[in-house]
Amino acid sequence: MSKEMAEKATRELEKMQLQEKADIKYKEWLKKKRAEEAEKKKKEKEKEREREAELQEKRTRSEKIFKEWLQNARNKPQPALNGYGFPHGKSTGFADRNLYPAPAYCNPIPWKPIHVPPPQEDSVLTMKKNKRPVSCQPHASLPMVISKPKNNPCVGSLRKR
């Protein structure tokens, strides 16, 4: 019995040692995981800060460019008012329907028609005046004969012979 008790005690002792080793390994793994998560959060926050800094820089740049554009837009000359209601740049008080707006683009090269050479007169003189193409000549018409079939004397039909 003492041997069985000793064996049982050694088994329990081994179990306890294995359990302690497992707990130690688990705690080390947990520390490692928490450190990785903290590092990951730190990197995400850093990226977020960089993104915010880029957005802020972009906003300031765009505001500066807009202000420059606004200053330049005030100094640009206005287009001539040659549209509806403003003939020769003066307001008539009503829209004149006969006026068209000024063209936005004018082609500097004027349009020229394509040169077509006149037909040659020698080919016309060589043909005879009386000669017509075959399709235009009148056809000899065949005489029309009305005949009655032998089996039905009442019905007549037209036949070409």
TrEMBL record:
Which GO terms of the cellular component aspect does the record hold?
Answer: sperm midpiece
Its BP terms in the Gene Ontology are: spermatogenesis
Superkingdom to which the source organism belongs: Eukaryota
- Pfam families assigned to the protein according to its UniProt record, in alphabetical order: CCDC34
Please give the coiled-coil regions recorded for this protein. Answer: none
Q: Which residues form the Coiled-coil domain?
A: 3-111
Q: Where is this region: Disordered?
A: 34-60, 130-161
What is the protein named?
Coiled-coil domain containing 34
Please spell out the taxonomic lineage of the organism that makes this protein.
Eukaryota, Metazoa, Chordata, Craniata, Vertebrata
